[in-house]
């Protein structure tokens, strides 16, 4: 490693799930094709198109997230888009907009933002929000709720 180069965080893999530990702080973009469990601090973008992201109880994300499934036990500030489902557990906190086919928010969880139930699935995840809104109005396939 070059002495002027910053050390890179280590991501360990256990039983097919990559894990970012609680003492690590990442700024930038995380993308990949395996499930990811975060316990550290992340700022930026997380893109796991066909995989599951678990935001652990000690995790603090300031990030937009795109994944197949997102489960939040910790804190997230940013927009979440999941092709399959989003779960916010009882001690979880999300401030941002959610787009997903299925949603579960447990009693005690904190959520501030809007929810768009997307029944169209995979194709809408890649389209910008204004294009989804136009298509939804034309077809009537989405339900939008502000909480």
The general outline is globular
The biggest beta sheet is recorded as:
13 strands, mixed
Series of H and E elements: EEEEEEEEEEEEHHE
Low-pLDDT ranges: 130-147
How many distinct helices?
Answer: 2
How much helicity do the residues have? 10-25%
User: What is the overall pLDDT average?
Assistant: 82
Q: What value does the Rg take, in angstroms? A: 16 Å
Number of domains: 1
Fraction of residues in β-strands:
over 45%
Please state the structural category: mainly beta
User: How many β-strands, per DSSP?
Assistant: 13
What's the N-to-C terminus distance?
48 Å
What does the model show?
The structure is a single chain. This protein has one domain. It has two helices and 13 strands. Strands 1, 2, 3, 4, 5, 6, 7, 8, 9, 10, 11, 12 and 13 form a 13-stranded mixed sheet that branches. A hairpin with a 2-residue loop joins β1 and β2. The radius of gyration is 16 Å and the shape is globular.
Keywords for this entry:
147 residues, mainly beta, 13-stranded mixed β-sheet, 2 helices, 13 strands, 56% strand, disordered C terminus
């Amino acid at each position: 490693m070059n002495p002027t180069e910053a050390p890179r965080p280590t991501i360990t893999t256990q039983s097919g799930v990559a894990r970012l530990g609680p003492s690590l702080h990442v700024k930038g973009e995380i993308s990949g094709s395996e499930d990811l469990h975060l316990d550290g601090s992340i700022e930026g973008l997380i893109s796991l198109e066909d995989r599951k992201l678990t935001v652990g109880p000690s995790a603090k994300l300031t990030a937009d997230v795109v994944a197949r499934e997102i489960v939040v036990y910790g804190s997230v500030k940013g927009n979440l888009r999941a092709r399959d489902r989003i779960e916010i557990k009882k001690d979880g906190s999300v401030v941002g907009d959610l787009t997903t086919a299925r949603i579960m928010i447990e009693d005690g969880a904190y959520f501030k933002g809007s929810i768009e139930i997307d029944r169209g699935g995979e194709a809408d995840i890649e389209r910008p929000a204004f294009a989804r809104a136009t298509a939804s109005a034309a077809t009537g396939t989405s339900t939008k709720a502000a909480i």
